Amino acid sequence: MELQISAGQGPEECELAVGKFARALCEEFDGTGIKHMTEGAREGCYKSVVIESKHDLSSLEGTVQWICQSPFRPNHKRKNWFIDVSPVRTFIGIDFDSKLIRFDTFRSSGKGGQNVNKVETGVRATYLPLGLSATSMDERSQHRNKKIALLRLQALLSEREADGRRLTDRSNWQEHTRLVRGNAIRIYEGMDFKRV
What is the pLDDT of residues 30-50, one digit of tens each? Predict the structure, then answer.
């Protein structure tokens, strides 16, 4: 399982809390490690950290509160800092199986001489699980049109997969703006980050 720990759009203190919480989870749950970090403004501060664990950490989803005087702004009145914990959505790619392609032939129009409207040289390739299809009537040969239709279908599938990856990445990134302050699932105190 992967979790994203984010400072949202919070200040440096929230970025520091992200690093402290990530380290605390790695110590608390064996088999948990840091997969990716986006560094913040100062050393030890992170805008976000993605951790990977063999444990089910879904119960940690939500807001984490850190109660501490600011280590960066000593006279600052605020003592409550919040970070977001959310599961990382992963894109499951298309498990392409060429056995699930159906080829249909049809009479093509256009060039082809005496074969036009007599022989079925046009080919439609349909990937059945998704209902995506591509056609070719470019060539006079059914065999060549089948190859072209297959290439076009594979391009459509690649495009669909790339769109899915982009949407998943965008969804994960948008979690940075969804930080809810209050109603914390865990609370920590002080610079030693002790759980309350």
Answer: 999 999 999 998 999 999 999
